[in-house]
Amino acid sequence: MTDTARNAAAARDEDGLLASLAVYLHRRVLIVVLLGFSSGLPLALSGATLTIWMAEAQVNLTTIGLFALVGVPYNFKFIWAPLVDALDVPLLGRWLGRRRGWLVFTQLLLILAVAWLGFQDPVLSPWHVAFGALLVATASATQDIVVDAFRVESLEVREQAAGMAGYVAAYRVGMLASGAGVVLLVAWFEVLGAPRAEVWAWGYLAAAAMVGVGLFAALMAKEPPAPADAPPREGKVAKRVMQTAVGAFSEFLTRNSAVAILLFVVLFKFCDAFAGALSGAFVIGIGFDKATYAGVVKGVGFAAALAGGFAGGVIARAMPLSTALWVGGILQMLSNLAFSWQAWMGVNVPALMITIVVENFAGAIGTVIFVAYISALCGNRAHTATQYALLTALAAVGRTFLASSAGFIAVETGWIVFFAITSVAALPGLALLAYLQARGHFRELAAGGR
Questions:
Q1: Which residues, 6+ apart, have CB-to-CB distance to 439 below 8 Å?
Q2: 159 and 259, same domain (yes or no)
Q3: Low-confidence ranges of the chain (pLDDT < 70)
């Protein structure tokens, strides 16, 4: 190659690199990133952060485990996903447009629900806490539906990868803010001498204010154009919603091995969800304080999760999808045993750091590969939004219904045995993976079939 040719090639490579980086500064991509932060906020507020609050208030483990059921809306969001497509929010829809109207509505509802939840007492008013957490989860699940649709419709093809990458990173930052951020803030309020009965209320009020990031993004965004073949907005809304829902579900259920696919979606991440239901209560319960929890579990764990996400992307690109799922599934299964080791080690900060790095790194690898699999299942563009909502809702079953028994099991077995059981819980998902592989499911996906 001549010097001129080499220089030209280098210039093209540099231009390509600069263009790849510059896409993150596009207005549409930045809006999606901010919405990712807002989407990541609510999950911990009705999950891990809430369990820390309840554990500190000395609510019993059985009750804490049952609170996993407040995540039920994530399981059933596919039911009202067609409604989000068919209906406009009164007033807001007319002012902002269909997608932005729903975004603003869900974020306003989130702000109210999070603030209300923070003023409840887990000991004196457990049913009020449960209702508040359920309302937070419902608004959050609806926001997820809208943000997914908004992201797909507003980003150009060349912006989709950058938008998704930025969204996932910002989602994790949002989870960190409502997890470690709120816990650290509560601990700081205690140091300042704030009454113990009020510190969690102030922490949740701060989290409610953080939702303003997504609200700002929704107001600054442009409404994506409606598809050229979109049905008219007037007329028989109920009929359009029903046709959309029936078409999406029937198309999926007529696929080869449909039942096995749905069971696999439910069970692949179950071992992670089973252990995660009590991981926060475990760390506090064996003697670590809130500051250590926030610094190690959320701080070090956050970095490990980002690294694991990158590693999962590399694995998903380098290997066939079925092989990548085997890697992710086995890593998830083995990583839960690190918590059994931690229970044996007791209050040991270096050991906790190792445990959290292993669990978050392996869990993130499994999540990225699993999302790649779900995306591959949603190849029919006529039903992508509803089918994606259905599959992600099924994936949340492990985090809600199945994991709700975690408290009972932990009480009966102790921490060491409990986390060993969560590791064994990965085996049904791996068995289904072997079955689908033997039935040629992954060959059909690779070929674009069903």
A1: 256, 257, 260
A2: no
A3: 1-24, 152, 157-165, 226-241, 243-245, 247-249, 298, 313, 317, 375, 379-385, 398-403, 448-450
Same domain, 132 and 274: no
Cα→Cα distances 378→192, 371, 436, Å: 51, 11, 17
| Domain span including residue 189 | 23-226
Q: Give the whole-angstrom CA distance, residue 147 versus residue 34.
A: 11
Contact at 8 Å (CB) between 177 and 42?
no
Number of domains in the chain: 2
The one-letter amino acid code at 102 reads W
The structure tokens 């406009």 sit at 88
CA angle 345, 351, 352 (to 5 degrees): 105
Report yes or no on 434 lying in a domain.
Answer: yes
